[in-house]
Amino acid sequence: MKNSWNLAKYLSPIAIAVGAAALLAQTPKPKHLNRVIDILEQGQPVYYDSSHEGTAGGFDLGKKDAQTWADYIVYDMEHAPYNIEALTQYMRGLAAGGPTRTGHRMPPVIVVVPVNGTDEATVRANAWQIQQVLAAGAHGVLLAHADTPGAVRAFVEAARFPVHKQGVGQQGLQEGRRGVHGVPIAAKIWGVSQEEYIQKADPWPLNPNGELLLGVKIEDKYALANVQETLKIPGIAVGEGGPSDMALSLGYPAGNPIVKAANDRVFQVAKANKIFWNGINRGDAIEKIKEGYMIGFGPEAAALGRKFTNRPPPY
User: Fold this and answer.
1) DSSP secondary structure of 136-153
2) Is residue 15 part of a domain?
């Protein structure tokens, strides 16, 4: 009995190691660094968590969030402090806390920048915000109050290196304006060489090999008036309607039928332009997925949605 017990004692860690190796072997090797892209390419909705604490939590919070339930993290610097050092430390923490259960290096982070897309001149004057966020290793950027096509063109151009030519010349889009000196930190966080980073850091699906997700918020009456042209700009992959801000802008309560009609119109334009739209919530997750929404918020919506679409684990 004593010998049997000793044998079990030594075999137990081996069994655990073998089991863990078998589990890893069953996890398919990711095609993209950005796991949101892998999931969307499978036709599955994605679900996010929102971080308003990154500026305070830094590295330690990033390390904790690396094992989040969410497919990606929205990092808010529109209403929270604009702090690039804290974002950089958060991204480093995510890398240190990985890999994720899906085999990716880290969960993707999309940052909402402070600048509003009120017009082209405003975005060009504040393009440094977009470029600093990407230099910190973020996997995407969300432009709030994307009111005009010119603003969105300037946004896409600010996020791209000029070596990438997909979409240039379409809808007035010009070549990228991003420079090389923001590459070293981002490349290290992504775990790739600087040359690889330059090739990969481009908007998907405009560039099928790109790893960046660029998104817009159509959330006021000005954006609503221009939505048909704005959402045609190449490079935009994701977006949301901002129903509360739309209600404020239109001058009606949030539940007013006029506000609902405005947001429904925005969604239909987004769907026509093959942009993945946010709108899946825990109260109506199944209905929204049936309508064609592809982005949801919160663990409850994720649990309902993943079950409904038969999404295979790991999550």
Assistant:
1) TT-SEEEEES---HHHHH
2) no
Q: Give 151-184 pLDDT, tens digit per residue.
A: 999 999 999 999 999 999 999 999 999 999 999 9
Domain that holds residue 206: 35-308
Helix ranges (H only) for 98-165 are 120-125, 127-135, 149-159
Contacts of 181 (CB under 8 A, 6+ apart): none
CB 140 within 8 A of CB 110: yes
From 82, 103, 80, 123, select the one nearest 29 (Cα to Cα).
Answer: 103
Q: Which value, in Å, is the radius of gyration of the alpha carbons in the chain?
A: 21
What single-letter amino acid sits at 243? P
Instruction: Check whether 127 has a pLDDT greater than 50.
Output: yes
Q: Would you state the structure tokens that stand for residue 169, as one six-digit string?
A: 């010349």
Question: What gap in Å lies between CA 39 and CA 107, rounded to an integer?
Answer: 12
Which CATH number goes with the domain that contains 283? 3.20.20.60
Q: Is residue 7 part of a domain?
A: no
pLDDT at 26: 58
Whether residue 208 is contained in a domain is answered as yes
CA 219 to chain centre: 18
Q: Has residue 101 got a pLDDT over 80?
A: yes
- Number of structural domains, the chain? 1
Residue range 91-98: mean pLDDT, rounded: 97
Q: pLDDT tens digit string along 257-307?
A: 999 999 999 999 999 999 999 999 999 999 999 999 999 999 999 999 999
Q: Tell whether the model's pLDDT for residue 80 goes beyond 70.
A: yes
Q: Which of 223, 230, 311, 272 is nearest to 43 (CA)?
A: 311
For residue 41, give the 3-state DSSP assignment.
helix
